[in-house]
Amino acid sequence: MTDAPLFTPEMSDEKVRASAWFRALRDEIVAAFEALEDSQTQGPTAGLPAGRFEVSETRRASDDGSDAGGGLMSVMRGGRVFEKVGVNISTVYGRLAPRAQAAMAARKGIEGMAEDPRFWASGISLVAHMQNPHAPAVHMNTRMFWTPHAWWFGGGSDLNPCIEYAEDTAHFHAVQKSHLDPHDPAHYPRLKAWADEYFYIPHRNRARGVGGIFLDDHNSGDWQADFALIQDIGRAFLPAFAPLTQKRRDQPWSEADKEAQLVHRGLYAEYNLVYDRGTKFGLETGHDANAVLMSLPPMAKWV
User: Fold this and answer.
1) pLDDT for the residue 2
2) Which among 63, 73, 175, 202 has most CB atoms closer than 10 A?
3) Is residue 203 among the annotated active site residues?
4) CA distance linking residue 190 with residue 213, whole number of Å
């Protein structure tokens, strides 16, 4: 990856396009998840009402009270398929305080930031916790970050089953690879390795799931090419994840299966509260705490 060349400082058109894409992806995923709820007519939770997303606006204010952006928080709770799922989008801007600069995912110590700490960021973030322990939990996010001194893309998706099925893991990874290969066959092995490293929990000496793909600080110098890549990472999500949900959602489960799910959710919560960069950055920049912590499971257990 290379540093960006000098560019039109505000990148106004690029920001509009990126923000609109994240909104369109959000709308597609929300519609697909509600369709999964409607089509759940068998299995242990079929008698529940079909879940629907509760949508609320999030707003962010600068220290002086001026507008600093916001987004949409969409959360479904207690559905037939999804016990809790959030699909959030945001577009925020302002000035980065030193602590927020330190919490940035990859770019730290950017030349010129101390004198001009303006920033703009837009993205989508999704976490799904399932009713059926055999259906895997999942995480996805993609984002664009801009300062007057540099810009970059980041994100990815990873699968988090509490009961792993090798064929499900293979499917999830194969779909990711098929969306990355047209851009560069070297992307998938590199981004898979990056995800394996990023979603590792050092204090537990284990990964939080079965991996996926992840990148950060991505700037090839060609904004169009990089935007196309981040769009295909987003497009890969539904075909990678939805078929696994359809396959597992009717499967009977035992009390032991549910116990395993709750314990695994504790692992997921530990990671997001201790290590996740997005959580740290969102809280440091004053974004809505409920939206930032949307990823936490509805119920978890530590033993």
Assistant:
1) 40
2) 73
3) no
4) 8
End-to-end CA, the chain: 43
* Under 8 Å between Cβ of 127 and 137: yes
Residue labelled with tokens 């949409």:
72
Residue 37 to residue 31: CA distance in whole angstroms: 10
What is the C-alpha separation between 264 and 261, in angstroms, rounded? 5
Q: What Å distances lie between residue 4 and 19, 219, 237, 249, CA to CA?
A: 20, 7, 28, 45
Residue located via tokens 């898979």: 192
Give the tokens for residue 14.
């690029």
137, 177 contact by CB (below 8 A): no
d(CA 91, CA 156): 18
**Encoded tokens for 44:** 């242990």
Q: Is 119 strand, coil or helix?
A: strand
pLDDT at position 38: 97
DSSP state of 266: H
Q: Which residues of the chain have pLDDT under 70?
A: 1-8, 98-115, 276, 278, 280-288, 291-292
Least Cα distance to 217 among 137, 151, 268, 267 occurs for 151
pTM of the model: 0.88
Q: What's the pLDDT score for residue 154?
A: 95
* CA atoms of 58 and 6, how far apart (whole Å): 33
What is the distance between the alpha carbons of residues 230 and 238, in angstroms, rounded to a whole number? 14
Average pLDDT, the chain: 88
The HSE-up count of residue 81 (CA atoms within 13 Å, CB side) is 29
The residue from 139, 149, 179, 287 that is catalytic is 139
Looking at residue 76, its pLDDT comes to 97
Tell me 168's DSSP state. H
Give the model's pLDDT for residue 243. Answer: 98
In this structure, what token pair is assigned to residue 230? 């981040």
